[in-house]
Amino acid sequence: MIETRNWTAYNIAQSEEKRRFVALLADLCSGVPTVRLPGAGRLRLPLSDIVFASVYKVYAGFSARRFTTDLRDAFVDGLIDSMPHFNSVNRYIANPDLTPVLKSLVTASSLPLKTIETDFAVDSSGFSTCRYVRWFNRKYGREVDNREWVKCHLMCGVRTKVVTAVDISGWTANDTTYFIPLVEATAEHFEVREVSADKAYLSRRNLSAVEAVGSMPFIPFKSNTLEPTEAGTWARMYHLFMHRREEYMEHYHKRSNIETAYSMIKGKFGSALRSKSDTGQINEALAKVLCHNLCVLVQEMHELGVEPAF
Predict the structure, then answer these.
(1) Alpha-carbon 59 to chain mean position
(2) Beta strand pairing status for 142-157 and 216-218?
(3) N or C end of the chain: smaller count of CB under 10 Å?
């Protein structure tokens, strides 16, 4: 059955999104320790204000100078304790101390929906950068220049598309190595009943990891997969896939919801990263995911009556 959207709730949520977004972000950042990052020179800004400014800038989509007006309004409204200079916002987004904080905030921002989400999907997608790489293209018989990109690995709930776990890697990273950490991180806070992913994640180890958290893995088998001769998770899922294919694929196709999640993130916050440094690109990608989660919460406040509390 296809669920119809509550367009009245959707319209109200979109109309009020920015006001509610900054309030949720400030509430979320209030849980960040109010320590000041170490460094030589003048006294640094509180970490909570740095995180707020960095994430809010990604949401606004403005340059640092044009973003100053929004940041000043947040300061006047008491959402932050200090007013950072626009150069400080650019500098702090490249601070490695922000990376673990942003990851933890992505998880924290998903928790208000932990009673709603039980089925999850995993996939990766890339965000382009301002840097280029060159390699020899056999198809065209010459060297070509292409943009470097950063790969984002997500697990999201299939109902609301909220991201429950995230990691960032270089563009050459193998997707399957990030599967188990995403599953285990989600299972710490959510009841995981199903996990769906494409064939790139098919392995005995991944299937066993999903079953270990009390869940069912739905990853399609490849055409050259041999029929298993030993009992276990691999054999059970293989026979389910071969003999009850239609039922299996109904569960597997929930994976398309993570494509929707990536589309939501890139459509609203862009598919390119402005930061030039490696750390800045990682933090900017994480900030996009966090912005997405907060926007999902705003939507579910109206559609499902969720009252987020961090």
Answers:
(1) 14
(2) unpaired
(3) N
Domain extent at residue 135: 112-257
What secondary structure letter does DSSP report for 275? -
By CB atoms closer than 10 A (0-12, 13-18, 19+), residue 23 is: middle
Close Cβ partners of 225 (under 8 Å, ≥ 6 residues apart) = 202, 238
Residue with tokens 């220049």: 145
| Assigned domain for 66 exists | no
User: In this structure, is residue 297 part of a structural domain?
Assistant: no
Residue located via tokens 């198809």: 139
**Residues 72 and 82: beta-carbon distance below 8 Å:** no
- 142-157 β-sheet, strand order: 163-170, 142-157, 119-137, 194-196, 216-218
Q: Across the chain, how many H-helices and E-strands are there?
A: 11, 5
Distance in angstroms (rounded) separating the CA atoms of residues 37 and 46: 7
In a domain, 88, yes or no: no
Q: Reduced to 3 states, what is the DSSP secondary structure of residue 216? A: strand
Among 299, 298, 257, 309, which residue's Cα sits nearest to residue 121?
A: 257
CA distance 116 to 306: 10
Is 49 strand, coil or helix? Answer: helix
Backbone angles phi, psi at 67, to 5 degrees: -75, -15
Three-state DSSP state, 108: helix
The answer to whether residue 117 sits within a structural domain is yes
Alpha helix ranges (H) inside 77-129? 86-92, 98-110
Q: Phi-psi region for residue 260, left (φ > 0), alpha (ψ -120 to 50) or beta?
A: alpha
Tell me the CATH number at 235. Answer: 3.30.420
Q: Which amino acid is at 199?
A: K
Q: How many structural domains are present in the chain?
A: 1
Mean pLDDT by runs of 10 across the 310 residues of the chain is 75 94 95 64 74 96 93 94 88 90 96 96 93 62 71 96 96 92 97 96 96 96 90 92 95 96 96 92 97 97 89
